[in-house]
Write a structure and sequence with these properties.
6 helices, mainly alpha, elongated, 137 residues, 80% helix
């Protein structure tokens, strides 16, 4: 059911107005920093054992998909620093070993999201180049 809804949504995007899609993409780029700051604030006030830093995957993925690899890596680095910053300056208590493992897993997921976003972006440009090359044949 979910895959069918996703397929319908993707088909709707393919037949949508390209100018409208560009406006949506520009708006998504503007949400990267506010999303990262929102996750940081939530993480700062959450107990250390809760895996809030995993939410940094969203802004990192958006940056890697919509910007260049360098910008995506910058956002991933910022997210990793904010992950450990919230750990150092957040409230104490809780099981610190679980918190440390959560931070490590979040850092791995953040950098994995960068890689996946970059690969998808690269594939998108390759597909676009392929269609441009062979559309007149």
């Amino acid at each position: 059911m979910t895959s069918a809804l996703l397929a319908v949504a993707l088909l709707g995007l393919l037949y949508d107005d390209p100018q409208r899609l560009l406006k949506i993409i520009k708006r998504m780029r503007r949400t990267i920093l506010p999303l990262a700051m929102l996750v940081f604030v939530i993480d700062l006030f959450a107990p250390p054992g809760i895996a809030v830093p995993v939410l940094y995957v969203v802004p990192v993925f958006i940056a890697a998909l919509l910007w260049s690899l360098e910008w995506g890596a910058g956002v991933a680095l910022l997210a990793t620093l904010l992950t450990y910053g919230a750990y150092l300056y957040g409230p104490g208590g809780g099981d610190l070993s679980v918190a440390q493992i959560n931070r490590l897993l979040a850092a791995i997921l953040i950098w994995s999201a960068l890689l996946v976003g970059w690969i998808l972006s690269h594939l998108q440009s390759e597909i676009k180049e392929f269609y441009e090359r062979y559309k007149d044949r």
